[in-house]
Amino acid sequence: MAIPATQIRNGMVLLVDGRPHRVVSKEHITPGKGNAVVQTVLTDLQGGGTVNRRFRSAEAVETASLETHELQYLYRSGDDYTLMNTETYEMIGLPEGTLGDSAKYLQENMIIVAQYWNGKVVAIEVPMTVDFRITACAPPMKGATASGGPKPATLENGLVVKVPQHLNVGDKVRIDTRDDSFVERVTD
């Protein structure tokens, strides 16, 4: 389906040179002279590279038609991740490159949404929040409260995030996968 370049939004998947690209960022630029343009940063969902692309405002841009299916993450073996289609029970092996930054959030039995283009997984979406245990951080400060300044903490997946001073090793925390920010402490 073709849309005007002015309707491009972050997260959309466009067909550029016959390949699917996800819009990472877009900016509408209106110069003093000449025509307005839409400047975009796109990620190639097949090749993984990033490209800057400029579209004229009046230009028609083709959106990619993607299928989505729920997959359950099972396990990792080297750089390959094994998932199962929850509808057909088909086992799917995906390389780390296809998963991108989302790979660091995967936990056993997690349900994710996979986006398919021409029968091949090109991207995945993990839940908006995930829970992890803290494996390393400075000890809590005496008298620290939840409103104190944040401190860095390493989580079981290797991610380092800022958490409140009163949290300690072994505590479970909820993390926002959009920006790796601390959401709340989780009780077991």
General description of the model:
Strands 9-8-7-10-11 form a five-stranded antiparallel sheet. Strands 14-13-12-15-16 form a five-stranded antiparallel sheet, with no helix packed on it. By secondary structure, it is mainly β. The chain has one helix and 16 strands. The chain folds into three domains: 2-62, Roll (SH3 type barrels), CATH 2.30.30.30; 67-125, OB fold (Dihydrolipoamide Acetyltransferase, E2P) (Beta Barrel), CATH 2.40.50.140; 129-186, Beta Barrel (OB fold (Dihydrolipoamide Acetyltransferase, E2P)). The chain has one helix at residues 96-99, and strands at residues 2-4, 13-16, 19-29, 37-44, 50-56, 60-62, 67-77, 80-85, 91-95, 111-117, 120-125, 129-137, 150-155, 160-164, 172-176, 181-186.
Count of individual helical segments: 1
Biggest sheet architecture: 5 strands, antiparallel
- Main sheet strand line-up: 9-8-7-10-11
Q: What is the C-alpha radius of gyration, as a whole number of Å? A: 20 Å
Q: In brief, what are we looking at here?
A:
By secondary structure, this protein is mostly beta strands. 2% of the residues lie in helices and 54% in strands.
Topology:
Blueprint (H helix, E strand, L loop, with lengths): L1 E3 L8 E4 L2 E11 L7 E8 L5 E7 L3 E3 L4 E11 L2 E6 L5 E5 H4 L11 E7 L2 E6 L3 E9 L12 E6 L4 E5 L7 E5 L4 E6 L2
Antiparallel strand pairs: 1-6, 2-3, 3-4, 4-5, 7-8, 7-10, 8-9, 10-11, 12-13, 12-15, 13-14, 15-16
